[in-house]
Amino acid sequence: MLAALAGLWLCGVWSGFGSAALTSNEVTDNLLVDTLGLSGIEPRYLVLAPRVVRPNQVYRVTVTLLSANAAHTVRASLQRESEEVASAKELVASGETAIPQNAKPGKYQMRVEGNVNGVLGGTGFLQEQDVEFQAQFLTILIQTNQFVYNFEQSIKARIVLLTTELKPYAEPVDVYLTVSYEITVQDPATCDQYANKTIGFIKINFDLPYDYAVGWWSLKVVVLSQVEERKILLERWFTERYDVYVNVAPFVLDTDEYFEGDVSANYTTVAPVFGNATIRAYVRPTLVQDYDPGIQVVEPYLEEYVHDFRMGYQFKFPMSELRDLASPHPLDKCEIEIKAAVGERFLDVIVDGYARSRVINSSLSLKILGVKPLVFKPGMVFSVYVSMRKVM
Hints:
Organism: Rhipicephalus sanguineus (Brown dog tick)
Strand content: over 45%
Number of domains: 3
Largest sheet: 5 strands, mixed
Keywords: Signal
Distance between the termini: 93 Å
CATH topology of the largest domain: Immunoglobulin-like
Strand order of the largest sheet: 10-16-15-12-13
Signal peptide: 1-20
Domain Macroglobulin: 241-283
Order of helices and strands: EEHEEEEEEEEEEEHEEEEEEEEEHEEEE
CATH architecture of the largest domain: Sandwich
Number of strands: 26
Protein name: Macroglobulin domain-containing protein
């Protein structure tokens, strides 16, 4: 007797080519025909049968067609020393059930019923089971060229779409640019993956107008009933006519005689700026909590005024005077902040810039050993060797 089952509740990876390898399950005492490891091709069927044969017992064989374009006539036989003892034949069709593309969310049930042939109104079995509907049938990755945008900039994005089988998705996709109150601003008609020239990969470009609503916007990808969004922030700011740069060393020793640095100013066209400049040095302890905002605190500072500023200026402050500003805190527990305000004579514009430097103790020398540069990958365990010595 042969019991045929077409693709219900059976999982496995078996192929229909190559010589079969027999494996057993000690608990259920069944026999599996496994040929995937020998053939290495797409699996076609699954066969499940008992390992033990007993007299006067029904020997059941379960056959599942994993991929079949048409029905198959399956014949199973049991042989003893090349002599056929029992056989059965059954017509088996592929058991794959495709969900319609227009499936909507709701309560779904899986219903399996079997009818007895040759019997009037005979139902062999009936089974119902609740199943969960999930609209996410794709893995959608949305990447943008930046996180914050200004007016008249271009929002460039790329979208990667993969199925649950990690294969590219080749159907049309809708992409929308919406504001926070769900009003569609732009929906480009070129999001059908460029006529499938780049299957599973989309590149889009939105040009922002001069006037728009400032705030959080959404880049929305709609594929059938699945919706994926990525938030982007749209701001409005205007750059200055020129920029001021303050360059200092990130770390200085408390035994240095001077604290040195330079201030430079250039137009956006890289032309030099001529005017005057005010440079101030502040010393703040690093281990002290922030001051109460309700209390007005006047910070002491050292100031240097440059009457004739021409594109750049090098400054230096004595460390002894900075140490007096840090009192009663030790200087090696503080950081130095340099603020520079550069004024342009003809435009009557003042632009600020600043930089910070940490003061460290010179009695200890710390060095990271190893080949430089050190290379590591995220999530990878790595070892770092550090050498520390005391300077006498």
